[in-house]
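Ticket #4471: structure output looks truncated?

Reporter: J.K.
Steps to reproduce: submitted the chain below (90 residues) through the standard prediction queue, then opened the result file.
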Amino acid sequence: MKNTQSATIIVDGGYSPAEVDLTQGVPATLTFKRINDAGCLDQVHSTSLNFSEDLPLNEERTVTVDTSQAGEFPFSCGMDMFFGKVVVHP
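Returned output as attached by the reporter:
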């Protein structure tokens, strides 16, 4: 069993990948890297995962994800126009 898990999400007119699968109970991080200067994607937030980050162009920003609960947890840009989700599997 892995001790940690991580995913990198490229922000370029949306999120790639838009869905990240994680395992419940294994500490996890998401790294966002914005490579396109389009509008509202300069910010990412998730109420259910309890993070909000500014995303400077061509810089990585890493957030820790709580994997204690299984389920689907959405994240979106600052204006809630682009969406992604984290799926935590039991």
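Triage note (M.O.): checked the attachment and the full token line is present. Strands lie at 5-11, 15-16, 19-23, 28-34, 43-46, 51-54, 60-65, 71-77, 83-89.
Status: closed, working as intended.
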